[in-house]
Amino acid sequence: MRPERTAEVERLRRLFRFFGTTQGAGRSPVYETLSEGVAGDESLLALLLETPEDQRRPSLLFAAVNLLLASRRDSELAAYYAIHGGRRAVDDQLVPTFAAFCGRHRDELARLLSQRSTQTNEIRRCVALRLGVDHVHRHWPGPVALVEVGASAGLNLLFDHYDYRLDGGTSSAVGGSSVVVSCEVRGSSGTGVRRTMPGITRRLGIDQHPIDPDDPDARAWLEAFIWPEQTGELATLRGAIALAAGASGVRVAAGDATTDTARILGELPGREPVVVFTASLLSYLTAPARTAFVAQLDEAARRRPVAWVFAEAPGLLATTALDIAALHGPLARRNSLYLVGAGLRGDGHRHDQLLGLADPYLRWISLARGPADDFQWVPAD
Ligand SMILES: C[S@@+](CC[C@H](N)C(=O)[O-])C[C@H]1O[C@@H](n2cnc3c(N)ncnc32)[C@H](O)[C@@H]1O
């Protein structure tokens, strides 16, 4: 084997093991087991080597398989996926069954892996948006426009149409919504989030590959990112898609975060502040692209106030010149978690603040105990 190929195979093994231990463990016995299985399977690693380098992601491989399973619910592998009606517990046949399935559908998988991109729409991340909007509202009372960059299908843009169950209690956004977002609040009681929210004057998404929730194929791809055991998440996603179908005034424009954000923000009518939300966007951008994205926000903030509300890996945020002291310390190495915060820019002022440290899917959040919190009190998950 050529040295570059050997190095790439080793990188992929580490990547899958990292995914299995940091994301699968304790949450998805199927993906935890399969991550280790892929790391040890030469033929599955060879399949990944045939795809473009930036497409060699555990989430993408698992989603591609999941998509094929959705129309093959009677297959042996689907028996391990509760979302496809399966009831079989993880056992020593899971990895061979997965490998055999991938072998049978190798061409279809190779095509999906090279053509599709990671397109989750994780509704729970609305918890971060809700916290961020609440923070912005305390500083800038009054209505705001909402733009999500990396919006996928734009379902987070309807965050104020959902109800929230935070820490078991209900902190309702609308009351009686068909979509209820649950998140455990760790290390404190309640969130301090007020029930009142600002009026949202417009809702716009920007995405490299916008997903049309009315398109059945696009919907199926979004659903493919739901993990095998997550029957509740699947119901929430379907509920949000149904809600979006009946909503007006929500649009996701095609655009690149690094080159189009300032222009698109500049085209928004009105002078009210714009809340720009990103969740799990920065990991798709190279270091220069992250700098370019932040420069786009700075440029837009020269025309009207812009608040960047984020739920992103701390190490990536540390490269974006946010004025958050804790990002210069060990917090920047906790990349299996997401930092939730807000950076307000307007009238020549800048105010960056961290709000919480959370599981990347916002299953739980620990709220900041002060502006200088470095979250060392939050144990590794
Ligand atoms: C992991 S998904 C997150 C979607 C959504 N924010 C959520 O939290 O569910 C990342 C999204 O970012 C988009 N994306 C990646 N790079 C981008 C770029 N340079 N410009 C705009 N969108 C991008 C992808 O197409 C994808 O929809």
**CATH class label of the largest domain:** Alpha Beta
Number of helices: 12
What's the CATH architecture of the largest domain?
A: 3-Layer(aba) Sandwich
- Uncertain spans, ≥5 residues at pLDDT below 50? none
Strand order of the largest sheet: 3-2-4-11-10-9-8-7-1-5-6
Radius of gyration: 21 Å
Q: How big a fraction of the residues is strand?
A: 15-25%
Work out the helicity level: 25-40%
Bound molecules: S-adenosylmethionine
For the termini, the CA-CA separation is 37 Å
Q: What would the CATH topology of the largest domain be?
A: Rossmann fold
- Biggest β-sheet strands, sense, barrel: 11 strands, mixed
Chart the SSEs and their pairings.
Elements: H1 3-24, H2 29-39, H3 42-49, H4 58-70, H5 94-104, H6 106-115, H7 126-139, E1 144-149, E2 163-166, E3 169-171, E4 180-186, E5 200-207, H8 216-223, H9 231-246, E6 250-254, H10 257-266, E7 274-279, H11 287-301, E8 306-312, H12 314-317, E9 338-346, E10 349-358, E11 364-367
The structure holds S-adenosylmethionine.
Give structural notes.
With 381 residues, the chain is an alpha/beta fold. It has 2 domains: 3-115, no CATH class; 123-367, Rossmann fold (3-Layer(aba) Sandwich), CATH 3.40.50. The chain is built from 12 helices and 11 strands. It has helices at residues 3-24, 29-39, 42-49, 58-70, 94-104, 106-115, 126-139, 216-223, 231-246, 257-266, 287-301, 314-317, and strands spanning 144-149, 163-166, 169-171, 180-186, 200-207, 250-254, 274-279, 306-312, 338-346, 349-358, 364-367. An 11-stranded mixed β-sheet has the order 3-2-4-11-10-9-8-7-1-5-6, with helices on both faces. The longest helix is centred in the first third of the chain and has 22 residues, at 3-24. It is globular. It binds S-adenosylmethionine. S-adenosylmethionine binds next to strand 5 and helix 10.
